[in-house]
Amino acid sequence: MRCLTTTTIGSFPLPSTIDNFKLSIEVQAKVGIDYPALPQLKDFCEVFLQDIAERGRGLQKRGNNFMLVGPVEAPKEPAITQEVALAISKLRELGRELRLKVQVTGPLTLSSAVRFMDKTAMSYPDVAESFADALAEILAAACSYDNVEVAFVDEPVLYHALWYGYDEKTAASIINRTFKRVDGSVERGIHVCGDAMGLHRVTLKLDVDVIHHEVMGFPRNLEAYDQSQLLESGKMLGIGAVTTRPIDVNIRIEGESEIEELLNRALERYGISIVVAPDCGFRGLLEQCGSESAFEVALKKMDAMVRAVRGVRAKLRLESND
Fold this sequence. Notes:
Layout: H1 18-31, H2 46-55, E1 57-62, E2 65-73, H3 80-93, E3 100-105, H4 107-112, E4 114-116, E5 119-120, H5 125-142, E6 148-154, H6 158-164, H7 168-177, E7 187-192, H8 200-203, E8 210-213, H9 227-233, E9 236-240, H10 256-270, E10 274-277, H11 291-316
Parallel strand pairs: 2-4, 3-6, 6-7, 7-8, 8-9, 9-10
Antiparallel strand pairs: 1-2, 4-5
C-alpha cells in the first residue's frame, strides 16, 4: 500500500443481502477509498465458522454455539470466493478497476468463539494452529483473484490471548500460519482494535506489511510504537482515523480538520509510512441507531476521512492515488 492511502476494515451496518453487499462496495468506491474492503454484513466470527461447519470439517453448530468435534478443515471452495468475485464484478460495473482488500477473522479470535469440552478452543494452542491452517486455505482462495492486492487478518482478541497465557512467539507463529499460502504479490496486514500498548512484542514479529490499530477512539495507541521500530521492521502503521462505535450516548461524525490534526500527529511521530482506515468495522454503530441511520453515518465518516487524507496529501505534495 502506498503511503497515506485509505481502506476500511470491512463490516457495514446493513442486513446481509446481495444488494446491500453491492451497495457497500459501491459507496467505498464512490467516496474515494483507495482499497475498498470486501464487505462483511454478518458477524465476523460466525461467517467463517458457519462456512467451516456446513462445508468443511471439524465444527458443529449446536444451538447458538459452535463446537469443536474434530480436526478443523476449510471447505474446498470457501464461500468468500463467491463474495470476492461479486465485489470485483461490481467494481467493474462502476468502471473502477480498484485494488481490493480482503480480510479473514484471525485464528485466535475464531478459536475463542468455539467450545471444546468445558473451555474455549483457544485454550489449546494446537487447536488454534489448526484454525490458522484452515484460514490459510480460505485466505489463499480469496487472494487467487488478480484484483486482490491486500489481505488482512483481524485479530481483536490478541491482547486477551497474551493475558490468557500465550507467549509472544507462539501468538505470532499462529497468526503467521494464516498467511503461509498468500502469494508474495499480495500485501499483508493485521488489524487489532482496543488497547495496543505492548502489542509490538507480537505485531513486529508478524509477516505483515501493515499493522493497523484503533487511534481516534483510543488516542494513546498513537504512542504504541517507536518510529525506529517500524523502520527496522519495514512495516507501515495503519491509523484508525474515525470512530466506529458510540463513545457515549451520541454518535459523533468527525470533521476533516479533526482527522487532519490526528494524521499530522501520526506523521510527526512516524513519518509518511502510514495508511488510514476507520478504527474498526462499522457494525458497532448499530449499538446506537437503526441500520439506515448507521449506514448514513458510516458514509459520512468515510467521506470525511478521504477528504482529510487528500488534504494532507496535497499539503505534502504527494502524488494522487487515482
